[in-house]
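Crash report, auto-generated. Payload:
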Amino acid sequence: MISSNLPALQVVVPLIAAPVCVLLRRGTLTWLLAWLASWSAAAISIVLLIRVLDQGTISYALGGWLAPWGIEYRVDAVNAFVLVLVSLVGAVIVPYARTSIGAEIRSEQHYLFWTAYLLCLAGLLGVTITGDAFNVFVFLEVSSLATYILIAFGNDRRALVASYQYLIMGTIGATFIVIGVGLLYLMTGTLNLADIAQRISEMPVDRPLLAALAFLTVGISLKLALFPLHLWLPNAYAYAPSVSTAFLAATATKVAVYLLLRFTFTVFGKSHVFDDLPYGEILLALSIAAMFVASLVAIFQEDVKRMFAYSSVAQIGYITLGIGLANTSGLTGSIVHLFNHAVAKGAIFLLLGCVALRIGQPALSQMAGLAKRMPLTAAGLVVAGLSLIGVPGTVGFVSKWYLVMGALEKGWWWLAALVLLSSLLAVVYVWRVVEICYFREPSKDLATANEAPLSMLIPAWVFVIACVYFGLDATVTSETAATAAKTLLESLR
Amino acid sequence: MNILDFINYWIAMFLLVTGLYIVIARGNLVKKLVGLSIFQTSVYLVYISPSKIIGGTAPIIVPGMSVYSNPLPHVLILTAIVVGVATIALGLAIVVRIHEAYGTIEEDEIHAQDQGTQ
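Recovered output after restart:
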């Protein structure tokens, strides 16, 4: 009984837990509930992934209303992978969050934080699992509204402005997505993604279809912070509480990337829309611009969180680069980089949260001598930083390897060279952090600081170890990603 | 093709662009939200217009009627309205907090204050 309803439970568990948090109101109780909900979501997602890899796509009719009339939850290799990623990150962050928000958020607001957190988790999982176009929009807004709240919790008053800006940009993006979905509905008379794909494959290309593709692409690109639509991201990441930043950096943009994959491949893949459209080329150009411009801007940031926020924009560039390549290696590279970047950025923002616990949000100069006072934190930053660069032995290398392979398969040497060249920019900003942490005398802010408590260090190091573990033995992640890439490419004509 | 045949869509697009223009051009945070609201509302027309069949009645089976409007887009838009209301409510709540923190809701003044503190 329960096992056949797992796809629904995946979303329902955190969704129900969220309002219960409001009723409980007690910080500790809600924290325990969030533990329970996020860890069961993680367990469910792992069971689903194993089942999908074993038996193929799962289709679940919500409320017993069969597709295409009812809302269908459809789990294949692609979204099972993303579900595991989102729910695992969510689960690891919960134990960390208690100490961290204890320092950064007033205690009477903790239950509200957990409510927003669980709603955000439910929304992200919902976007990923659903096979219904309008349902995508609804869950996207559930997660986005929760995200704005998570950002506005920040101590700095600029967090409010960042949250407001994100609300404006995010709502414009979501509205574009609704317009796109509406046009698809007008053309096909159905909202089920598989059904839409089937019907538009038999249609001639006309303007509404092109407009739908354009609206959906721009709307989703706003959500995933594709250059030059990334303007909301740096401030939002910089001023949000440490936990929110880590959670959002690791999950929210990744889910938006998944949506882009879903729409460009599964939905529009079979139609003739791309025949005369330089879609891949546009995506490639923007990705390359993101890789270089955002990395360059990152180098000149003084605020460490902002620096890594810009680095996120650059790393998203690598992910969309693989989508633009649209061959097996490139796509495997982007899907595996979803995971790899989530792990590396999760580690970095959690470790910066440890620093923030001791000295408040650090400017780069304040982190001088960090290695002498907080050696474990500094070491973790170095490992995760190496992973951002893509040094062999870390996860970043695995994804860049696939991306370079993808570029070479197309015979594009220059693109492979550009990927490597942009990695050098990452060396520069990571080196700035390493140099300050290791080769300076401790700053006066750090004079009396010591390591953050284990409840924060352990979750952060789980990510750091994952950076190395999945870098040395990438079979699990890259094989799952390769299966996912094949599933997507099968839907192309 | 008669332009008036598509009057609903012309109006929807006009409202869409108006809303977007307000969001971009206005510096007052509340006015921006008003623009955002217009922007979102225009999309409701895009959904509702094609679902209303001329001469059709509400989708309840009654004797003597054979043409019905499509109920699905109406239901979708009910959901979208709820989402829109929630978004605007949250936006206004954030503006209240911004006003408490900065003492102003003009974008340029907020920007100037932030530059000052850095």
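Post-recovery validation: The radius of gyration of chain A is 21 Å.
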